[in-house]
Design a protein that fits this description.
- About 40% of the residues lie in helices and about 0% in strands.
- The chain is mostly helical.
- The longest helix is centred in the middle third of the chain and has 15 residues.
- It is elongated and about 75 Å long.
- About 0% of the residues are buried.
Length: about 40
């Protein structure tokens, strides 16, 4: 019995890395204050 278990090393496109970086930065920002109308 032969089991072929190999993987391929791939990298994400630079555009995807930039998009993910923007998402992470947005999560790190403090939340916006809620608007209260009186």
């Amino acid at each position: 019995m032969f089991i072929d278990a190999h993987t391929h090393y791939t990298t994400a496109p630079l555009q995807l890395q930039a998009y993910r970086a923007r998402q992470i930065i947005e999560q790190a920002r403090p939340p916006r204050a809620k608007i209260q109308v009186s």
